[in-house]
Design a protein that fits this description.
Layout lengths: L1 H15 L14 E5 L6 H12 L7 E5 L6 H8 L7 E6 L1 H9 L7 H4 E9 L2 E6 L7 H10 L3 E4 L5 H13 L4 E4 L3 H10 L4 E5 H9 L3 E6 L27 E7 L4 H16 L1 H9 L3 E2 L4 H21 L6
Parallel strand pairs: 1-2, 1-3, 6-7, 6-8
Antiparallel strand pairs: 3-10, 4-10, 4-11, 5-8, 5-9
Helix pairs in contact: 1-2, 1-11, 4-12
Length: 320
């Protein structure tokens, strides 16, 4: 359903967008966007939406899915690409903030190998529990964890939802068993079945289960409440003002890419993100469109790298 929604919005935008008024020096042939995750996930859907809506680029933006090693395979291949503006990589909180601290050798040097192009959008995590636990609040979860073992799931070692659970353990002074899965789908299955009791998941994937009442949402990790879950408080409202986790999606380019190419790409993507159809499609699945100049992404990459690196070291987390 999400895929159909995004493709429909993209088709509408492509059909209505005017052709470029003048030919641009860049690009003169298709641009490749390496997406280091499999087709069908949230990151892939965002990439395809941008690919289909960036008509002002004047050339196709071709998606190249290269999954593996938590995104390291595709990201490393982008680092080795020619820095000519014709190879880009989807950058995320995982590959461009977490993995460089999580893995001894992810295959790339984040700040030496890449330059920021644009921040596409961000989401939030939703703290959910299995209905059979009887837990109805964050305070109740913390109290239960202090008296009875709880297990929390993640979509993989080092994923933002594991780090959310580790952060909760640290700030609430509780212990929970971490159970990593290969993606959100299997974790949600076990959450529904009671094999795990707690799961911080990205809003786009967990939202249908919250809406249907199959799991209970206790809190969200954004700066403000989610428009999709207006009755669910933020972690900050519940007494944890620094508990802000907003998984994000962006585009970067190999270091050495001409500044004029980066500027052109940023301009085109920023305009696409402002289009009402694109914004509506992203918001519908829980992604807030962002945009802005490359420096916005550059500053975010540095601050997130420092923040999550500190937590990874403190909690002794490793992906190796």
């Amino acid at each position: 359903m999400l895929t159909r929604l995004l493709l429909a919005a993209s088709a509408l935008l492509a059909a209505s967008a005017p052709a470029p008024a003048t030919a641009q020096a860049f690009p003169t042939h298709p641009v490749r966007l390496i997406v280091p995750v499999p087709p069908g996930g949230t990151g892939d859907l965002v990439a395809r939406l941008i690919s289909n809506s960036a008509t002002e680029l004047g050339q196709p933006l071709v998606i190249d899915n290269r999954a593996g090693a938590a995104g390291n395979v595709g990201t490393a291949s982008a680092a080795r690409a020619a820095p000519d503006g014709y190879t880009l990589v989807q950058c995320s909180i995982g590959t461009c903030a977490i993995n460089p601290s999580l893995y001894k050798n992810p295959g790339y040097d984040l700040f030496k190998d890449f330059v920021p192009v644009i921040l596409l959008g961000s989401s939030i995590n939703v703290l959910t529990v299995n209905n059979e636990t009887g837990i109805t609040s964050l305070a109740g979860l913390i109290e239960r964890a202090k008296s009875k073992p709880l297990a929390f799931g993640s979509s993989g070692v080092g994923a933002s939802n594991q780090l959310a659970g580790e952060l909760l353990k640290r700030v609430a002074k509780i212990d929970m068993l971490h159970v990593p899965y290969k993606g959100s789908g299997p974790a949600i299955t076990d959450l529904l079945g009671g094999q795990i009791q707690v799961f911080f998941d990205n809003e786009p994937s967990i939202l249908p289960f919250v809406k249907s009442g199959r799991v209970r949402a206790l809190a969200v990790t954004g700066r403000t409440r989610s428009p999709n879950l207006p009755d669910v408080p933020t972690m900050a409202e519940l007494g944890y003002p620094d508990f802000i986790i907003e998984p994000w999606y962006a585009i970067a380019a190999p270091t050495g890419t001409p500044a004029a190419a980066v500027s052109r790409l940023n301009e085109v993507f920023d305009q696409a993100l402002k289009h009402p159809d694109v914004r509506q499609a992203m918001l519908k699945i829980g992604i807030t469109p962002r945009g802005g100049p490359p420096d916005v992404l550059g500053q975010l990459m540095h601050s997130e790298y420092e923040r999550w690196g500190a937590l990874i070291r403190a909690q002794h987390i490793t992906g190796d």
